[in-house]
Amino acid sequence: MTNDLEATSSCCSTTAPNPATAGNGRENLMGGSTSDDMTTCPVMVGNPVSKKAAEAVGLYRDHESERYYFCCGGCGPAFDSDPTKYAANMA
Strand 38-40 and strand 48-50: pairing? Predict the structure, then answer.
């Protein structure tokens, strides 16, 4: 028996292809952005996202006349599974 802890999985650990991934497999969607450009991911609540950077790589969805921006490639499909639930995270 070992004391190894299993790593918890998140949508951001997905292997979905993403053209703007950093060396650690996650995108850097924070760099050089103004506060007006910043939001948070509705799926991974609390993860900051640059709207401009997310749009540039297609990490967003429109739902009920609002645009939602994602921190990684796995969040879009998660949002698609229940957009109303994730949109409520931004209210």
Answer: antiparallel
- Provide the number of structural domains found in the chain: 1
Q: 40: which strand partners?
A: 48
Residue 80 included in any domain: yes
Burial class (CB in 10 A: 0-12, 13-18, 19+), 8: exposed
pLDDT digits (tens, 9 = 90+) for 71-87: 999 999 999 999 999 99
Does 70 reside within a domain?
Answer: yes
Domain annotation covers residue 48:
yes
* 21 φψ region: left (φ > 0), alpha (ψ -120 to 50), beta (else): beta
Q: What is the pLDDT of residues 20-59, one digit of tens each?
A: 434 445 555 555 556 789 999 999 999 999 999 999 999 9
Domain extent, residue 57, equals: 28-88
In this structure, is residue 50 part of a structural domain? yes
81 neighbors 90 (Cβ within 8 angstroms) = no
